[in-house]
Amino acid sequence: MAKYKINYEEEKCIGCGTCAALCPDNWEMQGDKAKPKKTVLGEAGCNKEAEESCPVNCIHVTEQ
Ligand code: SF4
After folding, report:
1. Ligand 1 mean position, distance from CA 40 (Å)
2. Domains of the chain
3. Residue 6: exposed, middle, or buried by beta-carbon count in 10 A (0-12, 13-18, 19+)?
4. Tell me: the pLDDT tens digits for 13-55?
5. Fewer beta carbons within 10 Å, N or C terminal of the chain?
6. Which amino acid residue places its CA nearest to atom 6 of ligand 1?
7. pLDDT value at position 11?
8. How far is ligand 1, taken at its centre, from the CA of residue 26, in Å?
9. How far does residue 15's CA lie from ligand 1's centre (Å)?
């Protein structure tokens, strides 16, 4: 089964909230930064939308 890994460059996050709005299953805001709930997933799902919509391109979803 495919696995997806999320690499997140937290230092680049500007806290816009887009990822948490598009993908609340796996992204939440903690203060002025986003946090992924899980970084290894069986399905990329909405994390792909978060990756594509992040304005500073700090979310990277890769298939393992
Ligand atoms: S979309 Fe990107 S910049 Fe915006 S809160 Fe999420 S990780 Fe941070």
Report:
1. 18
2. 4-63 (3.30.70.20)
3. buried
4. 999 999 999 999 999 999 999 999 999 999 999 999 999 999 9
5. N
6. 19
7. 98
8. 12
9. 5
